[in-house]
Design brief:
Elements lengths: L1 H13 L1 H8 L4 H14 L2 H16 L9 H8 L9 H9 L2 H38 L8
Helix pairs in contact: 1-3, 4-6
Length: 142
């Protein structure tokens, strides 16, 4: 767990998106605290991804937890298993209709947030690294 947390700190703090967010922090202590929190939050997907899969395998042993290759091929056309159907099966059978809509909205909001961060990072890289090569005498206003 300690090695995972240390690699989580490095992985969360070394990418362009997190670097931009850390550089815009109010102070050094805010930036350091944000990186430590991000490293510990990296452990959260264990519970968000692994536990629902285990629950789906227990609730749907014939479909998600297929035991043989033939059973898996009949149900989901995959010899490796039907684990990719675990989360949709849980959502479609256990969640009420209103919560399904909220779940879709949450997933789309997370996707849009990631995309805006990526676009912001790409525009920063282009502006700082590529544009000066195209226009040698470009002023900072450009």
């Amino acid at each position: 767990a300690v090695v995972s947390t240390q690699s989580g700190h490095y992985g969360r703090g070394a990418d362009q998106i997190m670097a931009q967010r850390v550089l815009s922090a109010k102070s050094l202590s805010h930036a350091q605290g944000a990186l430590v929190l991000a490293g510990y939050l990296k452990l959260l997907p264990l519970f968000l991804m692994v536990v629902p899969g285990m629950v789906a395998r227990a609730l749907f042993p014939d479909t998600v937890g297929c035991a043989t290759e033939e059973t898996c091929m009949n149900f989901c056309d995959s010899k490796a298993g039907c684990s990719n159907l675990a989360y949709p099966e849980l959502v479609m059978t256990l969640m009420p209709t209103g919560l399904r809509g909220i779940m879709i909205a949450v997933m789309l909001a997370a996707l849009m947030s990631d995309l805006t961060s990526i676009f912001n990072s790409a525009s920063t890289l282009f502006t700082m690294d590529v544009w000066p090569l195209i226009r040698r005498n470009a002023k900072t206003r450009e």
